[in-house]
C-alpha cells in the first residue's frame, strides 16, 4: 500500500509531471523513497540520488550525477512509451530506488525488487511445513521487476548482482568497471559497459 506522497528535492523540480502523470513518489515507514510508474514491463533502477550519510545510510545532500542518471532513465522510458512502433501494445514502467552510494544499503534496497517479483507468483501451489499456505507480504511496487539498471559504483553493483542472480533478474550496470563483474561464470545475468568503450566515451567527452 502506498503510505505517503513525499517530495524528492531537486528531482521533482526537473521531472515533467505533465508527461509522467502516473509517477508516484512514495515513502514507507522505513523512509524508503521510490519513483513508481506502473507498466506492462517494469524496470528497476538503482541510483545514488543522495550522498552517503555519517551515521545513517543516506545524507541530506543531493548527488547531482545520480539525479541525472535517474532522469535519463525516466526520459528513455517515456521516449519508448511514446513511440508506438517500438513496443506496440506494451507500456514500460519503473521502480527506482536510491542507493546513496552505499553498497550495503543498495543490497537492502534491492530486496524490494525481489519482493515485487515474488508477490506475482502463484502461492496456491506452495505449502509450508505445517501444511498451511504461505502468505506473501505486499509492498509498494509498480509491478514485478523484469530487469534492473544500476548501480553506479562497482562496489554497489557487486552487492546487488550477488542477490539478483539468485532470482535470475537481469541487471545492466553501465557505470561499473570492476573486472570481477565480467566473470560470466558468476554473474551470468549482469551486463556492464566494457572498459575500453568507457575510456573512449570519456576521451570523446574531453
Concise description?
The protein is α/β, with parallel strands linked by helices. It has helices at 11-14, 64-82, 103-118, 154-164, 195-205; strands spanning 24-27, 33-37, 41-47, 50-52, 58-62, 92-98, 145-149, 171-173, 190-192.
Keywords:
206 residues, alpha/beta, Rossmann fold, seven-stranded mixed beta sheet, 5 helices, transmembrane, receptor, G protein-coupled receptor activity, ANF_lig-bd_rcpt
Can you tell me the residue ranges where pLDDT is under 50 for at least 5 consecutive residues? 1-23, 26-31, 196-206
Mind telling me the CATH class? Answer: Alpha Beta
What strand line-up does the widest sheet have? 1-2-6-3-7-8-9
CATH architecture: 3-Layer(aba) Sandwich
Secondary structural class: alpha/beta
Give the mean pLDDT. Answer: 75
The tally of domains stands at: 1
Order of helices and strands: HEEEEEHEHEHEEH
Descriptive report:
The protein is built from 5 helices and 9 strands. The chain has one domain: Response regulator (Rossmann fold). It has a 7-stranded mixed sheet with strand order 1-2-6-3-7-8-9, sandwiched between helices. A two-stranded antiparallel sheet has the order 4-5. Residues 1-23, 26-31 and 196-206 have low confidence and may be disordered. It is of the alpha/beta class and 206 residues long. Helix 3 runs parallel beside helix 4 (154-164). The chain has helices at residues 11-14, 64-82, 103-118, 154-164, 195-205, and strands spanning 24-27, 33-37, 41-47, 50-52, 58-62, 92-98, 145-149, 171-173, 190-192. It is globular and about 50 Å long. Helix content is 30%, strand content 20%.
Amino acid at each position: 500500500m502506498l503510505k505517503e506522497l513525499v517530495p524528492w528535492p531537486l528531482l521533482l523540480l526537473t521531472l515533467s509531471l505533465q508527461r509522467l502523470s502516473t509517477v508516484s513518489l512514495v515513502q514507507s515507514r522505513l523512509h524508503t523513497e521510490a519513483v513508481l510508474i506502473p507498466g506492462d514491463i517494469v524496470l528497476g533502477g538503482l541510483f545514488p540520488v543522495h550522498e552517503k550519510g555519517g551515521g545513517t545510510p543516506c545524507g541530506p545532500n543531493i548527488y547531482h550525477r545520480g539525479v541525472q542518471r535517474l532522469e535519463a532513465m525516466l526520459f528513455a522510458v517515456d521516449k519508448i512509451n511514446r513511440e508506438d512502433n517500438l513496443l506496440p501494445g506494451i507500456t514500460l514502467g519503473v521502480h527506482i530506488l536510491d542507493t546513496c552510494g552505499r553498497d550495503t544499503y543498495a543490497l537492502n534496497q534491492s530486496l524490494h525488487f525481489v519482493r515485487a517479483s515474488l508477490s506475482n507468483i502463484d502461492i496456491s501451489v506452495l505449502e509450508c511445513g505445517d501444511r498451511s499456505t504461505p502468505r506473501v507480504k505486499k509492498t509498494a511496487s509498480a509491478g514485478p521487476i523484469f530487469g534492473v539498471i544500476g548501480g553506479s559504483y562497482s562496489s554497489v553493483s557487486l552487492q546487488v548482482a550477488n542477490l539478483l542472480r539468485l532470482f535470475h533478474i537481469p541487471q545492466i550496470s553501465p557505470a561499473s568497471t570492476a573486472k570481477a563483474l565480467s566473470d560470466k561464470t558468476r554473474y551470468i545475468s549482469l551486463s556492464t559497459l566494457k572498459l575500453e568503450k568507457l575510456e573512449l566515451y570519456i576521451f570523446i567527452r574531453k
